[in-house]
Structures are given as structure tokens and as C-alpha cells.
Amino acid sequence: MTTPWPYPRWIAHRGAGKLAPENTLAAFRLGAQHGYRMFECDAKLSSDGVPFLMHDATLNRTTNGRGTGGDLPWSQLAQLDAGSWHSRSHAGEPLPTLENLARYCIANGFLLNIEIKPTPGTEATTGKVVGEHAARLWQGQAVPPLFSSFQPGALEGAKATAPHIPRALLLDTLWEGWADVAQRLGCVAIVCNHALWDTALVAQVKGLGMRTLSYTVNDDWAAQRLIALGTDGIITDRVDFFSPATA
Ligand code: G3P
Ligand code: MG
């Protein structure tokens, strides 16, 4: 039996895909302006244990800093410019903490998929700390965030500190033993590279009682294929193209 599913089909990747600096509040606001009610974000830890939003392990691509983000304390990360790399109109945009985004989502009734994206070597700790923070931030809310990770160790950590917050295993390939790992972690969903889904895989995952989601879907043909396969969720960059009002 699949558990009830409170999340919408359409999820805006990193806030608003490539239309605003990824994983900044400006991006989530833009995704919301396009009608999106659920967002995916990437969360990792500063050296002093503050969960913040950034995709890459290093600061180089999406900030004016250099080196590994997880090596710096939050007091230094908070000074960085995470918008200028994208466009002049976003110059000075700060890196958000997970708490900043939680407040924005909760205040506006938006839902969140927190992809736990540990700095390599910090999988279990990142999962545990993100779990602790999310449990506190969403306490008393009707719908919790959805955790996901490519790293089973991160999901294990989140399960230890926030067992009530649902978990999903991210898969870029169907590695040996993925289904057993997802079951052992009590996952409610599998989030696949969209090209991996076919009739057999959808049936297998549904047979395990799990939901079926995809990343990162930016073409209409791909979205149509996933909807025809009966999958449950689509993470997209193209918030300006796909209407989240579409069933
Ligand atoms: O969570 C779905 C998707 O974001 C996973 O890949 O590299 O974009 O974080 P990536
Ligand atoms: Mg991600």
C-alpha cells in the first residue's frame, strides 16, 4: 500500500531552474511567481554545522568565494555573493540557510523537497543535522518536507534524527541493491533520472509501495512520457514552460 501523497506533481528545480541564481530566495520567489507550489533545493553543512543551500561542493561556480563551501563557518558563507555569477540584476544575493527557506515556504504554504547534498565524507552527519533542523522548523506543520539524497548514508542520518519526515532515494543509475536499500531506509519514493523510467521499473517501484518521481525534466516529450507511464512527480528547470496547474 502506498502512503497518502500530499505533494503536487510539479516541482521547481533549485527554485526556478536557470532563470534565477539557483538555491537563492530570489529563485524560489520566481518559481512561486510562475505558480509553483513545491520546490527542490540542495542542502549541505557549513563547517560549524549550519545547513545552507548550495548544489556544488565548491563555492566556485555559484558564488564569489573559492574552495569547499563546507570548510567555511556560516559567518563567512553569509558574506558571499551568490547572485552575480548569474546576472547583474541578482548581484549581492546571499546564500540562504535552510531555515531562511523553511520560513519562506511555511509562511506561504509552499512545500519543499530537501535534497541532502553532503560535502563528500560528511554524509551521515549532514543527514543527521538536516534532519534535526527540519524536524524543528516544520514542527506542527500539516505537511512535512520530503527528504531525498543520492547518498544512502545521508538518508540513514536523517532517519535517525527525523524518522517522521519522509525520505526518497535518488538514482542516476540502477545500481546493484538499490531497491533493498530504499526499503531498508523506509523510503516512500524513488526519484530517478527520468530516462530510467519504463513500464517495468514503474511497476516494480509501485509494487514496493513507493511513489515514482523524476529529475530533471525540461522537454515536453519527456514530461508526456512520464505522465503516460503513470509516474507521480516531475522536477523541472522550465518553470516558464510547464504550467504546474496541469494535472
Ligand atoms: O533532486 C533532484 C536533482 O536535483 C538531483 O540532481 O544534481 O540537480 O542536484 P542535482
Ligand atoms: Mg538537487
From TrEMBL:
Q: Name one GO molecular function term.
A: phosphoric diester hydrolase activity
Gene Ontology terms: biological process: lipid metabolic process
Any matching Pfam family? GDPD
Domain GP-PDE span(s) in chain numbering: 8-246
Name the PROSITE patterns for this protein.
GP_PDE
Q: What is this protein called?
A: Glycerophosphodiester phosphodiesterase
